[in-house]
Amino acid sequence: MTRRSRTFKIQSRADLESIPGGYGAVGVFDAAERCVLLASTSDIRGFCAKRFEHITHAGESTTILCQPCASMFEADLCYLHAARELLPQARPSILDQWRCWFLAFDLHQGRWSACSPDDPSPAAKDRTVIGPMRDRHAAS
C-alpha cells in the first residue's frame, strides 16, 4: 500500500485490539503471503473482527496489512491503489465495479485534469483529488 501502511500478525481475538479503528484500506494475507481479501472500510478493526473466524486458522497467524485513512474517500482511493499492487489479475473486474472519475489538481503543473481509477496514481502526494464523479464529463 504506502509508507503509512501497518502490518499485523493475528493469532487470537485479543490481537485484534492492536489494529486501528477508523477508515482505511485493509488486506488479508494467507500463510503463503497471498492477498486473499482486500477492502475499504469505515472501521478497520471492526472489519477484521467480523471476519476473524474466516480469516484465521488454528495455530497459524494471519497477516493483515492496513492503511489508516482520514476519510472513506481516501480509503477508497487506497483500496484502488492497493488492488493494482496486490491483486493485478483481479484489477479489471474491480474497476468494472468502480466506473467513476476523479478531478485531480497536479501541484507541479498547476492545473486540473480528469482521471479514472485506472490512472497510475490518482492519489499521489503531489495531487489533490476530488470525487468520485459518475462520468468523465462531470469531472471535466
Structure description:
This protein is an alpha+beta fold and 140 residues long. It has two domains: 6-96, GIY-YIG endonuclease (3-Layer(aba) Sandwich); 99-139. 26% of the residues lie in helices and 31% in strands. The chain has helices spanning 44-50, 52-55, 72-86, 91-97, 136-139, and strands spanning 6-10, 24-29, 35-41, 62-68, 101-106, 111-115, 127-133. The strands form two sheets. It has a four-stranded antiparallel β-sheet with strand order 1-4-2-3. A three-stranded antiparallel β-sheet has the order 6-5-7. A hairpin with a 5-residue loop joins strand 2 (24-29) and strand 3 (35-41). The radius of gyration is 16 Å and the shape is elongated.
Features:
single chain, 140 residues, alpha+beta, GIY-YIG endonuclease, four-stranded antiparallel sheet
In short:
This protein is an alpha+beta fold and 140 residues long. Helix content is 26%, strand content 31%.
General form: elongated
Q: List low-confidence stretches.
A: none
- What is the number of helical segments per DSSP (H or I, 4+ residues)? 5
Which structural class is indicated by helix and strand composition? alpha+beta
CATH topology of the largest domain: GIY-YIG endonuclease
Query: Roughly what is the average pLDDT, rounded to an integer?
Result: 84
How many domains make up the coordinates?
A: 2
- The side-by-side strand order for the widest beta sheet comes to 1-4-2-3
